[in-house]
Specification:
The protein is built from 13 helices and 19 strands. It is α+β, with helices and mostly antiparallel strands. The strands form 6 sheets. The chain has a 5-stranded mixed β-sheet with strand order 8-17-13-15-11. The chain has a 4-stranded antiparallel β-sheet with strand order 1-6-3-4. The chain has a 4-stranded mixed β-sheet with strand order 9-12-10-16.
């Protein structure tokens, strides 16, 4: 199916050409020059990669210890001699080769018998040895093309939803900076039409009262049954967003019945805010506002500060505001520690909280950011579904 390319660079390609060459997929663009040092050394001996050539990168890559196999779907470029470059015979769609080896199981099954790991962390397999193995693909070109077209359509849809997801995340980050007043200002840069009043500014101690948290570790919690649900600081930092709908997530459980009496006054309610007071970086202070709570008993756990607003805020407002740079920047100079960063309840008392007095404006702000979160979740879920579909097709469209 493949034969060795002996073409070398005739000197017409410069170092900039190497870096600018477009070699297909994002994975190629990221890894195709793996191991190449950024020097001005001559590239005259590098191999020429033509469109539709098949490339084997024989260096370990994260998740792919034996290298990867890709088809050049871009323009002509050059690669170091470390890479194997092949032309495909006329009756083979070269993209079917990449499709076949996108299954890690098939890739490993093909490469492992040929590989001998060298002392320089490169895979010591010669260019000729690489094509000694056997693979099974359809002989009919039309069938090859249809498989390739289907997989590429799925890949394009994955890329589309990934791009939309990232664009929505960027929009959300931008709006979190613009829809809350900066330090010393009383109105935001971007505001919903119809609202002109200056925002109210109060100290945190006047707006939020602290509740009691428990100090149960992960080992003290259960993923099964229990008497109360528990919110752990690690989940606030990593898993949970600005608004935590407890009806839609699985929270770890507390099995010790004595906590019901001990923390009765601190059972969480909708609108309460849980702040993570410890982290390994400046994400300390990240918080989640409670929503969707019905009759469940939920407690705030280890390394958290639970707060309850003195006056009622529109759902979502506090969660998004307290995670915005407008508020979080106040916490940075108050953080303590080197390897592990923390912030104390007393230090937070004098921080400023600013909010529109109009509940209607608070509602619009909360709904707007929730709609962005919904779009992010939608695109991410669709992306994951398409990835699973592609993986299924890769496993079942080849023998």
């Amino acid at each position: 199916l493949l034969y060795l390319s002996n073409e070398k660079n005739d000197g017409s390609y410069t170092r900039d050409d190497v870096l600018a060459a477009s070699l297909g997929t994002e994975l190629q663009k990221k890894h195709i020059y793996f191991g190449l040092r950024a020097t001005d050394e001559s590239v005259k001996n590098y191999k020429v990669v033509l469109p539709k050539d098949v490339i084997y990168t024989k260096s370990p890559i994260k998740g792919f210890p034996n290298g990867i196999i890709r088809t050049n779907k871009g323009e002509t470029g050059i690669v170091p001699t470390l890479y194997c470059v092949y032309h495909s015979i006329d009756t083979i769609n070269p993209s079917i080769i990449q499709a076949y080896f996108e299954s890690k199981e098939r890739l490993d099954a093909y490469l492992v018998p040929l590989v001998n790991i060298g002392a320089r962390n490169n895979v010591n397999i010669t260019d000729k040895e690489f094509i000694n193995g056997s693979i099974c693909i359809p002989k009919n070109e039309t069938e090859q093309n249809r498989i390739v077209d289907l997989l590429e359509k799925i890949s394009n849809l994955i890329t589309l939803h990934q791009r939309k997801c990232e664009e929505t995340k960027k929009l959300k980050k931008y709006m979190l900076q613009k829809m809350f007043p900066k330090n010393g200002e009383s109105v935001p840069e971007i505001r919903f039409a119809g609202f002109t009043d200056a925002w109210e500014q109060r100290k945190l101690r006047d707006i939020l009262i602290s509740l009691q948290n428990n100090t149960l570790s992960r080992a003290d919690l259960s993923d099964e049954a229990g008497v109360a649900k528990n919110i752990h600081y690690g989940d606030v930092l990593i898993k949970f967003g600005e608004v935590l709908d407890v009806s839609k997530v699985q929270l770890p459980m507390i099995s010790d019945e004595s906590v019901l009496t001990r923390y009765k006054a601190s059972f969480l309610q909708n609108g309460d805010v849980i702040v993570a007071d410890t982290a390994e970086d400046t994400t300390v202070g990240k918080c989640s506002e409670i929503a969707g709570l019905n009759n469940e008993i939920v407690l705030s756990g280890l390394h958290t500060i639970p707060y309850r607003p003195v006056e009622k805020f529109a759902s979502g407002y506090l969660g998004y505001y307290l995670n915005s740079s407008a508020y979080h920047n106040q916490l940075i100079p108050l953080m303590q520690g080197i390897k592990v960063t923390s912030i104390s309840k007393s230090a937070m008392q004098d921080t400023d909280i600013i909010y529109p007095k109009s509940k209607e404006e608070q509602v619009k702000i909360g709904c707007y950011f929730r709609s962005l979160d919904h779009l992010i979740t939608l695109h991410q879920r669709k992306c994951d579904e398409l990835k699973n579909m592609k993986q299924y097709m890769l496993q079942n469209m080849f023998v």
